Amino acid sequence: MTIAIEIAGRQIGNGHPPLVIAEIGVNHNGDPELALRLLEAAADAGADAVKLQTFRSEALAMPNAPQAAYQRARARASSQLEMLRELELPTSAIGSLQARAAQQDIILFSSPFDLESVDLLASLKVPAFKIGSGDLTNLILLRAVAGHGVPVLLSTGMATISEIDLAMEDLRAHGNPSVALLQCVSVYPAAPAMINLRAMGTLRDRYNVPVGLSDHTTGLGTPVAAAALGAAIIEKHLTLDRSLPGPDHAASLDPMAFRQMVEAIHEAHEALGVGVKAPIAQESEVRMAVRRSLVLARGVAAGQPLSADDLIALRPEQGLSPLLIDAVVGRRAGRDLEMGDRLRGTDLRPPLEIPDVG
To answer: What whole-number distance in Å separates Cα of residue 164 and Cα of residue 118?
Structure first.
């Protein structure tokens, strides 16, 4: 059975509500004040956690590293390094965001992209590390993160099973932190047909860890469907304005849509139930009204055997169920029965030793 992990005192895994993460990422555009506004918007929208991206630009990309098409489409910079410099959040801002998150009762953690950022976040005692899909193969970073012993959320965009195998083996060999795996498609924005939510089950079964979704679609259907499939974690980008410059705004939700998503995710989780098929207490009144009882279609004298033609099934459910018709037919009437009488077990000879309903 899939185990649960704990982040900031919260259990995450089977049987627990999904952890909904508002991915602030770089949607602050390097502005600490905008980052603070995004954090507050995430808390107001009902997110359980917010996640940043922490990096030093020169430790992340070479000067000639090209931009992906989605980055070129929305970024003002002409190179990836230049773009990253514009998006880099001052490290001094993270402490302020931590303090505000504590006031808002929301979990804050981050994705480190270099070893210095790992050490910074560890010194701030973040309750988890997130590893983005681009670093699933970066064993240098994975080993540094694993050594701190806090939970790791690992996105699997662009990854093959063999690459995930190697990443999981390395994490377990270099600190064995608690791990959750997130199904992800590294397209920004992504179409729902790309997402392959059933891969969550594959990851859950293969690695016996909580699984979830890092979602880059622009709608609500995919994350809600993930919750319905038992996702333990759902991560979604949050922006204050989808038209802002920057690579991730177009694949983000605004605060109103994010709140609608959170509410729908919780509804989907509540609707999952426990898996045991049984009537619930609230159905009892309707059951009595719409289920049927065996009723005499015509009079039958005491001692006469009952035939199928003597019986009909009518509402309400206050006598013997029609499920028992085969046990009733052939028994003798224990008394004179009138047309329209509801049949009870004590009306038969021998009596039918099944409790009447109603």
So the answer is: 21
Q: Which residues contact 50 (CB under 8 A, 6 or more apart)?
A: 21, 22, 23, 24, 38, 39, 42, 43, 97, 101, 106, 107, 108, 238
Cα three-residue angle 326-331-336, rounded to 5 degrees: 125
Residue 160 tokens read as 């093959």
- Read off the pLDDT of each residue in 331-356 and give the average, rounded to a whole number: 93
- Single-letter residue type at 21: I
Task: Give strand pairing partners of 314.
Answer: 293
The pLDDT of residue 76 is: 76
Enumerate residues 6+ apart whose C-beta is below 8 A from 280. none
Longest dimension (CA), the chain: 100
Domain boundaries, the chain: 9-272, 281-349
CB atoms within 10 A of CB 41: 21
Count Cβ atoms below 10 Å from residue 280 Cβ, excluding itself: 7
Note the CATH number of domain 9-272: 3.20.20.70
Element (H, E) at 12: strand 10-12
Is residue 356 predicted with pLDDT exceeding 60?
Answer: no
Q: For the chain, what's the residue count?
A: 358
Q: What residues are paired with 212 via a beta bridge?
A: 182, 233
| CATH, range 281-349 | 3.90.1210.10
Mean pLDDT of the residues in the chain: 95
